[in-house]
C-alpha cells in the first residue's frame, strides 16, 4: 500500500507584474508533479515571463520535478523570459548538479539575487513602445 508523503504546498507571490515567485514545500515527485505543473501553467497563462522557484523547503525531487522545471524553462525562453531556482536543499542541489540541470537553469541563493539576474538579462525583440 502506498503511503502519501507530505502534500505539496505551492505558494505563488508576484514580486513584479511579470515575475512569479513559487515557494514550493514538500516532496516534488511523481505524485505531486502535476500540481506543480498546474501552478506554473496558470502563471504562464496570466502573462508571467520570469519564474523564481524557491526550493528551500523541498527535501526530495525526482525526475518528474526536474522535467517540469526544464519544460517551463524552455517555454519561458521562447517568451522571452527566464527560470531561476532559489536555495535548493542539499539533496535537491545534488540532483540538479548530477543531472546538469543547474548548468542550464540558474541557481540563486536568494530572491533578490534571482531578481538581479532577471534585470541583467537582455530583453528580447518584444520591446515596449
UniProtKB/TrEMBL annotation:
<feature type="domain" description="STAS">
    <location>
        <begin position="17"/>
        <end position="118"/>
    </location>
</feature>
<dbReference type="InterPro" id="IPR036513">
    <property type="entry name" value="STAS_dom_sf"/>
</dbReference>
<dbReference type="GO" id="GO:0043856">
    <property type="term" value="F:anti-sigma factor antagonist activity"/>
</dbReference>
<dbReference type="Pfam" id="PF01740">
    <property type="entry name" value="STAS"/>
</dbReference>
<comment type="similarity">
    <text>Belongs to the anti-sigma-factor antagonist family.</text>
</comment>
<protein>
    <recommendedName>
        <fullName>Anti-sigma factor antagonist</fullName>
    </recommendedName>
</protein>
<dbReference type="InterPro" id="IPR003658">
    <property type="entry name" value="Anti-sigma_ant"/>
</dbReference>
<dbReference type="InterPro" id="IPR002645">
    <property type="entry name" value="STAS_dom"/>
</dbReference>
